[in-house]
Design brief:
6-stranded antiparallel β-sheet, alpha+beta, about 40% helix
């Protein structure tokens, strides 16, 4: 099981990511926008993916990943059950969500530093 502390550390390890409060819950963002929100009571997180990235993660592990209900889910927002997800897949999810929320210049810098 992934702890909230582990999840928080993964999010904060991304360049220029920081924690804020969003509707009374922890959220992680870049200067541009939020990429993950936390529901500590349910031990879940929501990621801001594109619909295509959402489909890929849900198709890879539908026990851990599912679209948020309603319009947010249609836009790509995806719930992840931290009690079920493998850490390696969670790391990929954090990176993917961060990447889509990062400013263009920071995305380019990240790609160059990581050989992508």
């Amino acid at each position: 099981m992934i702890s909230m502390d582990t999840f928080r550390a993964l999010c904060l390890s991304m360049p220029e990511a920081y924690e804020v409060q969003h509707w009374g819950n922890p959220a992680f963002r870049t200067k541009k926008r939020i990429f993950a929100t936390v529901n500590e009571a349910e031990h879940t997180v929501n990621f801001g993916f594109t619909p295509e990235v959402q489909a890929a993660f849900c198709g890879q592990d539908d026990n851990s990943f599912c679209p948020v209900k309603g319009g947010w889910g249609l836009q790509g927002w995806t719930t992840v059950r931290l009690g079920k997800v493998k850490k390696s897949l969670l790391v990929s999810a954090v990176q993917s969500a961060w990447y889509s929320a990062a400013p263009q210049k920071l995305q380019e810098q990240y790609r160059m530093q990581n050989g992508l």
